[in-house]
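re: ur question from yesterday

yeah so i grabbed the chain u mentioned. its 238 aa long if i counted rite. heres the sequnce exactly as i have it in my notes:
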Amino acid sequence: MCRLVCFAHAGAGATSYATWSSLLPPSWELIAAQLPGRENRLAELPLTSLGEMVSALLVNGRSVFEPPFVLFGHSVGAIIAFEMARALEQAGASGPAHLFVSGRMAPSLTHSTPRRVEDTDASLIAQLRDYGGTDPGALDNPELLELVLPALRADMRAERQYMHETGALTQTAVTAFGGTCDPFVSEQEIAAWSAVTSGPFAYQMFEGGHFFLRAHAAAMIERMRASVAADPAGSRGP
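ran it thru and got these structure tokens back, copy pasting raw so excuse formatting
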């Protein structure tokens, strides 16, 4: 049994991975992290720093991070997954057999083009339109937006405030995924994830924009399975 622990993009919750369970190998289990302020935790205040998110996940999900397991994160979730791997290693716990990151430039890089930094409702809605991962009808629904914007605002603030520690590495093998037409993350920025690990690294590009994973989930999961299977020691855990 191998546990696949997933972290969603900004403002999103566990249901982002609702269809993945049916795509997993029989010996794999899906665990989708649910942070405060979204879906069934909507009544809770969202966390506003990546450090708080990682700490909360470590405390509340201790049994989840028992080997063998792998981590996957998309966009902001990729940074959460990376920092989770580092936090486990620093705590002397068993780390993941593999770290899979998707749709986010390497944490050692800074954005080379200007980004929106306002977090007014109008700016957040415009960013959702730019990323293209939200049903356009939902963006015109004030009641729905009232529910989702607080978590999105908190996640965007957390990402803006995130400071990668120079030279901070994970020992875990890393595979990075990117979209060939993602306007926010280039292939070079995906390849730069090689700098965050002292272990093996690989990357793979898929056709599509920032949410390429929705069309290529089966292929990505197959790549994850093959990557873990290629390292028998890692697939069993320490």
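noticed a couple things. DSSP finds seven helices and six strands in the chain. also The first strand starts at residue 2 and ends at 7.
anyway ttyl
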